[in-house]
């Protein structure tokens, strides 16, 4: 029984690996800049493929969505550093710049953006002009499950953001932040 189970697990890993390799070829052909192999499981990149750059040894889990809107710029609108893992059903939404550093861990169900709609009373919600400001996540940052990171935020290196938080303002390096809105509750130290 153990041999059959091991064979099934090995077969599933092989199929997942082949699917991931195919997605690498597919998205490269559409214009996504992949700087090495990126592990992908049933992700969605729906348009503006050339506005996305992903470094080597990243992993994008099932249901991850990368969305770039608006005119193409001279720099990537979504940039993901090497050795970063983005967990299931996380949504990166950019019109100017969302940058994620190296060796980051992004939990499931997160939303990370660099824009929102205006609030002018003369326009209905979907006709509001977009307001954008670059969003940057440093290196070795750990973002818990279901975190929302709003436009213009910079999160410093080695920071941890607790599950369910909403980040509306910059967070310094080596901080632990939680809440709605996220606030620093302590700083990380070497042990």
TrEMBL record:
Stored PROSITE patterns: HEXAPEP_TRANSFERASES
Keywords associated with the record: Acyltransferase, Nucleotidyltransferase, Repeat, Transferase
PANTHER family: LIPOPOLYSACCHARIDE BIOSYNTHESIS O-ACETYL TRANSFERASE WBBJ-RELATED (PTHR23416:SF78), SIALIC ACID SYNTHASE-RELATED (PTHR23416)
EC number: 2.3.1.-
Protein name, as recorded: Acyltransferase
Residues annotated as signal peptide: none
Annotated InterPro entries: Hexapep, Hexapep_transf_CS, Hexapeptide_acetyltransf, Trimer_LpxA-like_sf
Pfam hit, one: Hexapep_2
CDD domains linked: LbH_MAT_like
Domain of life assignment: Bacteria
GO molecular function, one term: nucleotidyltransferase activity
């Amino acid at each position: 029984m153990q041999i059959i189970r091991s064979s099934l697990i090995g077969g599933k890993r092989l199929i997942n690996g082949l699917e991931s390799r195919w997605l690498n070829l597919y998205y490269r052909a559409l214009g996504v800049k992949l700087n090495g192999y990126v592990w992908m499981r049933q992700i969605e990149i729906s348009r503006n493929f050339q506005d996305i750059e992903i470094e080597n040894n990243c992993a994008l889990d099932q249901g991850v969505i990368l969305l770039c809107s608006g005119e193409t710029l001279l720099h990537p609108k979504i940039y993901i550093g090497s050795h970063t893992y983005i967990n299931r059903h996380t949504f990166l939404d950019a019109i100017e710049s969302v940058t994620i550093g190296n060796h980051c861990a992004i939990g499931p169900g997160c939303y990370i953006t660099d824009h929102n709609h205006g609030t002018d009373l003369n326009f209905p919600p979907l006709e509001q002009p977009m307001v954008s400001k670059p969003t940057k996540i440093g290196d070795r940052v750990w973002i818990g499950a279901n975190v929302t990171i709003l436009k213009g935020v910079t999160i410093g290196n080695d920071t941890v953001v607790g599950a369910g938080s909403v980040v509306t303002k910059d967070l310094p390096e080596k901080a632990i932040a939680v809440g709605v809105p996220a606030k620093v509750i302590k700083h990380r130290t070497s042990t």
